Model the fold of this input.
Amino acid sequence: MLESFIKATLAVRAFADDPDQFTKWEKATRLQASLATRLRLTPASRSDPKTIARNLPYDGPRPWARDEEEED
Done:
């Protein structure tokens, strides 16, 4: 799979300068992105929602508690 990623990267670079090769460049770019994800080279494929602070408990005041404090 790594060899395929390298070949796709080389193809992207080869097709990048020629406007007539746009469709080939586009297909190679999609393949490169897909392989990068499978090889866990992208940030999205390496991160876990639990480790990037998405599921941290909320420690601040509760919205309903603020209303009661403002009325007092």
Summary: Residues 20 and 26 are 12 Å apart (CA to CA).
